[in-house]
Amino acid sequence: MDIRTKFSVCWEGCRTCFKKSNSSGIKNDTPKKEPVVVIENPSAVRTIKPYLKSQEENNIENRFIALYDYSARTNEDLSFNAGDILEALDKKAKDWWFAKALTGISTSKKGYIPANYVAPVESLDAEP
């Protein structure tokens, strides 16, 4: 007996258990079609944040969220507020990274940021 035949026999055996009987006790193979009601859950709708536009633009491992406010001390520094999203362009220096602000007060500006003031967007530290 091949696998299709075995499956067919098994399926028919299971299927008979779920057939509904009418009032005369005779099984009816045609199920009644009831209307399907779809209830939308607004809290389950996923929204895409504006700074994560497409898969090509989304280089998530270089995206960071500011944990604290920082005011630039030199012309080369980048000012930002807690919650701003920053993209690290150069992380070669251990303590100071060259970054671009994606949101916030310095949107589209570039400058140096203290590495210990930010956390990866997809991390527990980034949670409020």
Automatic annotation (TrEMBL):
Q: Which GO terms describe its biological process?
A: actin cortical patch localization; endocytosis; plasma membrane tubulation
EC class, as a word, reads transferase
SMART domains referenced in this protein's UniProt entry, alphabetically: SH3 (SM00326)
Which residues are in the SH3 domain?
59-123
Record bears the keyword Phosphoprotein = yes
Question: Could you tell me which PROSITE patterns the record lists for this protein?
Answer: SH3
Q: What's the EC number here?
A: 2.7.10.2
| Protein's cellular compartments | Cytoplasm
Q: Which UniProt keywords apply?
A: ATP-binding, Cytoplasm, Kinase, Nucleotide-binding, Phosphoprotein, SH2 domain, SH3 domain, Transferase, Tyrosine-protein kinase
Give the top-rank taxon of the lineage listed in the UniProt record for this protein. Answer: Eukaryota
Record GO terms (molecular function): ATP binding; lipid binding; non-membrane spanning protein tyrosine kinase activity
> One Gene Ontology cellular component annotation?
cytoplasm
Q: What protein name does the entry list?
A: non-specific protein-tyrosine kinase
- Organism of provenance: Hippocampus comes
